[in-house]
Amino acid sequence: MRISIVGAGAMGSMFGGLLAECDNDITLIDVNDAHVSAIHADGLRLTTDSGDRHIKALKICRPEEATDIPELLVVFTKTLHTHAALSGVKHLIGPDVHLVSLQNGLGNVEAISEFVDTERVLIGVTTWPADLVGPGHVHSHGKGVVRLMAADGIARPIVTLVSETLSRAGLECTSDATVWAAIWEKVAFNAALNSICAVSGCTVDQLGLVSDGRRLADEVVSEVLSVAQRLGINVNPDMCKTNVAGAIAQHKGHKPSMLQDIVAGRRTEIEAINGAVVAAARRLEMKLPTTETLLSLVRLAEARAFA
Ligand code: NAD
Asked: Distance (Å, rounded) from C-alpha 18 to C-alpha 169?
């Protein structure tokens, strides 16, 4: 497929690299000049369990330099940059382009639907991890999956085509009509671990140092998934709490991206995670005291960086 990926940081570069290795026509689009220059010079250095290699069979450019109209435009910026990123590549969104988001958080369909009809939006969730090691170099490890559906829930051939393309690249994609449950469960997982780590400065495993960490995380999962359940989404709070407990037991030294962003003085994805859940709860006249308190604390920590 002819695929452009706007937001070619950790995840965008990893997906682009694996898709390029599988003979797709890939253009990465990003505003990080150091990253763009490094890939121009030496290709993308991708380090995964399959090895450490330089992938040269892909293009990379800044948004204003992109000219190839893709069949598929993948949005892989942080959620707070989606609007700016799509505004920057508006000239690539022809009448036949489909857009895909595997970003974390809620509100991604709405953000993309400002640029195309919702019937051309594919939404999903991925458990693949990736880190930007430095300009031009991305690292991933282990195995993940992708779950994908059309945003309007209609079984369209494009979903099958994209799923098969991702799976051929080793990204293990299934088209799955229950994606909304997986999206909410990941939002609950991130609302718990990311926001508690962001305000406490703890790594994920350090949340197990005293019982308060586990208790707070469980409260957030219960609150977030109670909203999903009121919306009629068939989520599994017990499984989500088990996953959170597993992360606290196993993710030694891991700093969630929200903690990394606070430490670096960058804005975080809090509005798409705790913020969007609290907004949905207010519309349903529900109260989420722990999730809302963490939202306020992360907003304060963010504001301090810009004061
Ligand atoms: P990242 O910060 O590494 O990459 C985002 C990229 O977007 C950056 O390279 C940045 O320069 C670029 N960008 C910002 N504004 C832009 C603009 N206007 N035009 C073009 N490019 C722009 O982030 P990431 O870790 O790759 O995460 C991307 C999304 O995927 C997030 O929603 C994240 O929550 C989600 N996610 C991340 C992981 C992970 O392990 N990293 C796993 C699953 C989901």
From this structure: 6
CATH of domain 2-177: 3.40.50.720
pLDDT in tens, 191-230: 999 999 999 999 999 999 999 999 999 999 999 999 999 9
For ligand 1, atom 32, the nearest C-alpha belongs to 103
| Cα-to-centroid distance, 7 and ligand 1 (Å) | 6
Residue with CA closest to ligand 1 atom 15: 81
129 lines ligand 1 (CB under 6 A): yes
CATH number of this structure's domain 180-306, picked from the four choices 1.10.1040.10, 2.115.10.20, 3.40.190.10, 3.40.50.300: 1.10.1040.10
**From CA 59, how far away is CA 70, in angstroms rounded?**
13
For 184, counting Cβ atoms within 10 Å of its Cβ (0-12 exposed, 13-18 middle, 19+ buried), the class is buried
137's CB contacts (< 8 A; 6+ apart) are 38, 44, 45, 46, 47
